[in-house]
């Protein structure tokens, strides 16, 4: 898709989808549009929130590899969440610019021989499987050989991914014996979707069993039975400074960590066979998960906090990415029948809270999602100790794809 330079005056509302060329993604956040008018906003205000946010992302990041503030084409995970929304919006509206935006990601990141730019299989970083979902979409659509080769490379990573003694995937090779909630979303929907598309009979059955086991293991090792919340990480070896020496658990309930896990559960059910015995267990996990997050939902705003169970502590804040993820997980579960209709009111309260408290709209119609935690993890250099102080002091920014993507997906569920 071609984007015109932002210095050229936009002549008509029909041109809204062209967006604006930017020197860098970061500069888009602070840019002031001077050529808009009530009749010619960059993002029309009469569209649904899903389209308004996707078009705003396309305006901020004219090429899809720029999503989440990438400075150069890099194989990473956040773009895939926004592009998941773009896939659904293309199917819903037929607007070719959405399909072009998705296709641009594959064209820029995968060379003709199937090499994935910046990807290194030997690092066994489970985060890097998530964007494989974009390639599954593109291969299903156009059957390009380069996408098949790239997908086969990503599937090889699953075969070699190091595991705990009982079989849970390590989050990364550099984080030995560690299981993080994040990893379930990063790896399992791709694993399940790939299996549905390419695996047969015994191979498929074995893969589906392995996928369900990953959730069974998390429920066993990371769940706090008292609150129903799940800890961010678990170190089987108990060697990490952040890990409790007795349990191996990290010390806090991080909002987005649980958000990743909730989205993973509801998304893999799109691919897990209806007759698989693990479906009923996963649906039971979704129910207990929803019950736990409802208990820590802020009664006033409907939002969720960065550290879920400590709303009154100094520095804590209602955080956008976790809130969007929880809303998406609940409303999709209601729509799919995994949760009773009575849960919709909690999803609706959260969604309304996001729009009222975290969404701002610029004069030119561009939509912003504010108060997103930029990043959080455990261990590494500099060392992240998993303390309350660590989580509440990580960088906060607007328009993080880890929030805008789930917001688009949640909006689509409400718009059904």
Question: How would you portray this structure in words?
Answer:
It comes from Chryseobacterium profundimaris. The chain is mainly alpha-helical and 416 residues long. Helix content is 47%, strand content 4%. The chain has 14 helices and six strands. Strand 3 (359-361) and strand 4 form a beta hairpin. Helix 3 runs parallel beside helix 14. The two termini are 27 Å apart.
What key attributes describe this structure?
416 residues, mainly alpha, Glycosyltransferase, two-stranded antiparallel sheet, two-stranded antiparallel ribbon, 14 helices, disordered N terminus, hydrolase, hydrolase activity, signal
Question: What's the helix and strand layout?
Answer:
Blueprint: H1 25-30, H2 49-60, H3 78-93, H4 96-109, H5 132-142, H6 145-160, E1 178-180, H7 181-198, H8 201-221, E2 233-235, H9 255-268, H10 278-295, H11 320-336, H12 344-357, E3 359-361, E4 367-369, E5 372-373, H13 388-392, E6 396-397, H14 401-414
Antiparallel strand pairs: 1-2, 3-4, 5-6
Helix pairs in contact: 2-3, 2-14, 3-4, 3-5, 3-14, 5-6, 7-8, 7-9, 8-10, 9-11, 11-12, 11-14
Task: Name the overall outline.
Answer: globular
Biggest sheet overview:
2 strands, antiparallel
| Helix-strand topology string | HHHHHHEHHEHHHHEEEHEH
Going across the biggest sheet, name each strand in turn: 1-2
Q: What proportion strand?
A: under 5%
The residue ranges in which pLDDT falls below 50 over 5 or more consecutive positions are 1-39
CATH fold annotation:
Glycosyltransferase
**Rg, Cα atoms, Å:** 21 Å
- N-end to C-end Cα span: 27 Å
Mean pLDDT across all residues, rounded?
Answer: 92
Q: Which structural class should the secondary elements be placed in?
A: mainly alpha
Helix share, percent? 40-55%
* CATH architectural category: Alpha/alpha barrel
The helix count comes to 14
Total number of β-strand segments?
A: 6
Write down the domain tally.
1
CATH class (first level) name? Mainly Alpha
Protein name: Unsaturated rhamnogalacturonyl hydrolase
GO molecular function: hydrolase activity
Signal peptide: 1-25
Pfam family, one: Glyco_hydro_88
């Amino acid at each position: 898709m071609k984007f015109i330079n932002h210095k050229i005056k936009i002549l008509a509302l029909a041109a809204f989808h062209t967006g604006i060329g930017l020197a860098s993604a970061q500069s888009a956040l602070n840019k002031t549009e001077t050529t808009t008018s009530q009749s010619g906003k960059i993002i029309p205000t009469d569209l649904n929130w899903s389209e308004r946010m996707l078009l705003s992302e396309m305006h901020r990041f004219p090429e899809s590899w720029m999503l989440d503030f990438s400075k150069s084409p890099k194989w990473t995970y956040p773009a895939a969440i926004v592009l998941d929304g773009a896939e659904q919006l293309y199917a819903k509206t037929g607007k070719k610019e959405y399909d072009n935006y998705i296709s641009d990601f594959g064209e820029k990141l995968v060379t003709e021989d199937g090499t994935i730019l910046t990807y290194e299989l030997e690092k066994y970083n489970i985060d890097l499987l998530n964007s494989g979902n974009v390639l599954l979409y593109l291969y299903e659509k156009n059957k390009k050989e380069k996408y098949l080769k790239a997908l086969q490379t990503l599937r090889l990573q699953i075969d070699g991914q190091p595991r705990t003694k009982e079989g849970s995937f390590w989050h990364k090779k550099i984080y030995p014996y560690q299981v993080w909630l994040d990893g379930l979303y990063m790896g399992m929907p791709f694993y399940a979707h790939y299996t549905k598309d390419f695996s047969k009979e015994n191979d498929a059955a074995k893969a589906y069993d392995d996928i369900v086991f990953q959730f069974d293991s998390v429920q066993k090792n990371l769940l706090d039975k008292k609150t129903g919340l799940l800890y961010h990480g678990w170190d089987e070896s108990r060697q990490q400074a952040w890990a409790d020496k007795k349990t191996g658990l990290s010390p806090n309930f991080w909002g987005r960590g649980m958000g990743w896990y909730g989205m993973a559960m509801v998304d893999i059910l799109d691919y897990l066979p209806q007759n698989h015995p693990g479906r009923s267990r996963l649906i039971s996990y979704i129910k207990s998960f929803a019950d736990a997050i409802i208990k820590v939902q802020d009664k006033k705003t409907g939002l969720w906090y960065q550290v879920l169970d400590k709303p009154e502590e100094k520095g804590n804040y209602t955080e956008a990415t976790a809130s969007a993820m929880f809303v998406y997980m609940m409303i999709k579960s209601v729509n799919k029948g995994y949760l009773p209709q009575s849960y919709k009111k909690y999803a609706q309260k959260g969604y309304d809270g996001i729009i009222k408290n975290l969404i701002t709209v610029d004069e030119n119609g561009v939509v912003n999602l504010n108060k997103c935690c930029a990043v959080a993890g455990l261990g590494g250099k500099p060392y992240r100790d998993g303390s309350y102080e660590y989580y509440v002091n990580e960088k906060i920014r607007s328009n993080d794809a880890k929030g805008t993507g789930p917001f688009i997906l949640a909006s689509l569920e409400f718009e059904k």
